[in-house]
Structure formats: C-alpha cells, structure tokens
Write a structure and sequence with these properties.
Blueprint lengths: L1 H17 L2 H31 L4 H34 L10 H24 L8 H19 L7 H33 L10 H7 L22 H26 L1
C-alpha cells in the first residue's frame, strides 16, 4: 500500500506542476487499488479478531494494521484530490510559477514519507520510525504558503489563491498520516503510544515510563523526548481553562 500511494503522490505532484492531464487521469483511475488493499487488510484483521482472539503483541499488531491501513489509504485519497485539481484546471496551470518550487519540495517530502512508512512497517525498527523531522519540514512549507498568500505583493488572481489554500493542506496531511503509521509501529514494538503522555517509543525503550523529564543530549539542548510529561500537561491546564472561560464569557455577552 505504501508503494502504491507513494507513486500516486509523485504522479499527482507532477500533474500539478506540469499540467499533466494523462498523469492526473492515471492517479484518479488507480485510486481504487489503494481502496481495495485497505479493504483486504481490514477484512483479514477482523477475521483474526473474530476467529483467533489474539492477545498482547498479536492484538497490537492487528489493531495497528486496521489504523495504519486507513492512514495509508487516506494518503492515496489526498493524492486523488491533487490530481482532480490538476484535471479541473487543465490546460491552464494550477499554480503560479513563483510557488512551484515550494510544491515541488512538498511533493518530494510527501513521497519520501510514504516510502519511509513502508520501510517502518517492513522493518519494525524504532530508529527508522522517527519521521518527525520530515513532518516538521512539511509543516514549515505549509506555513510558508500562507505567508506567501498574505503578502501584499501577491499579484495573482483569486482563483490561484484559492487553489493554493486548498492544495497545501493536502500535502501537510500526507505527512501527518505517515507519522501516524510510524507511531502505530512504535506502539506495536513498545506497547506505548507516542503523544499520549507516556514515553515515545525510543525514549520508553531507553528510560522506561519514568514521569520525570528525559535527559538532554550531550552538550545541552532540547530534551530527546517530545512527548508531553504529566508536569507539562499540568502547566498547560490553566491556559486551557482560561481559554474555555473566555469562550463562555464571549457566548454569554453575545446572548445579552
């Protein structure tokens, strides 16, 4: 599945950049393959749940398969949306020439993440399951798109701005789904889901479920673990409560 969606992302990006109608049509027509692979994976997983009653690691594998299949299939759907945008605007270009290099880079990162997700699934290696760096790069490109759109020197038509606004989040979601797949594999290996207040996979393996903050790398710097600790959650709680109280006050004022 990861190979199928990686090819779909690559073709969709080329169709978007080069006004490639043929490539767009290929992505649209081949999307059903990822749908079928997801359905097959889910059917096998549900059969195992019903007939074998797996436990412990086996159960984690089955549940991770169900979730990962959905994430991977969704990457294919997002590539489909990009291809449909290219077909809709054909023969005219979808993107202004000024921002094509940014979408070229987003496409490259998206393909790389899909390929890495496949490698993580095949190898079940915690070292390769860390896709956060590529995800951060994609997030930075996504934010840059909005900076370009809000620039007062934007000289292109409204239609181009709308297309960029709709297309950029598709690439950002590529990365999010790939990271989600990697986190599922970490869960299979360690039994701990990253981002739930416990240790992320590599840090849990190294230090265990210690509630204290992880040590910093040699020479100082940021902590090695990015997962929130109980202390960090307690520090954020007053901020969340203040925000909720502010929303309630605004709603009450509107009613008066």
């Amino acid at each position: 599945m990861c190979g199928e969606v990686a090819v779909a992302v690559q073709k969709a990006t080329r169709a978007l950049l080069d006004c490639g109608l043929q490539l767009a049509e290929e992505v649209i027509s081949e999307d059903v393959k990822a749908d079928e692979l997801r359905a097959d994976a889910e059917a096998k997983a549900f059969a195992l749940l019903a007939l074998q009653a797996p436990e412990a690691t086996d159960l984690r594998i089955v549940m991770a398969t169900i979730h990962a299949a959905g994430d991977i299939e969704r990457i294919g759907d997002l590539a489909l949306h990009v291809a449909q945008a290219a077909r809709r605007r054909h023969p005219h270009p979808v993107l202004p020439g000024e921002i094509k290099p940014d979408f070229t880079e987003m496409g490259r990162v998206g393909v790389a993440l899909a390929v890495k997700a496949g490698e993580v699934i095949r190898g079940r290696d915690l070292a390769t399951a860390e896709l956060e760096t590529d995800d951060d790069a994609m997030d930075a490109l996504h934010r840059h798109m909005f900076t370009v759109l809000m620039d007062r020197n934007w000289t292109y038509r409204v239609a181009a701005a709308v297309d960029v606004t709709l297309l950029a989040p598709f690439y950002e979601r590529y990365a999010d789904h790939a990271v989600s797949v990697a986190r599922r594999i970490i869960y299979v290996i360690t039994g701990q889901m990253p981002g739930t207040g416990r240790r992320c996979g590599p840090c849990w393996k190294r230090w265990g479920d210690n509630p204290s903050s992880p040590p910093s790398p040699a020479g100082g710097g940021a902590p090695l673990c990015r997962a929130p600790t109980p202390a960090s959650r307690s520090r954020r709680r007053p901020v969340v409560l203040c925000a909720l109280q502010g929303l309630r006050h605004s709603a009450e004022s509107a009613e008066m």
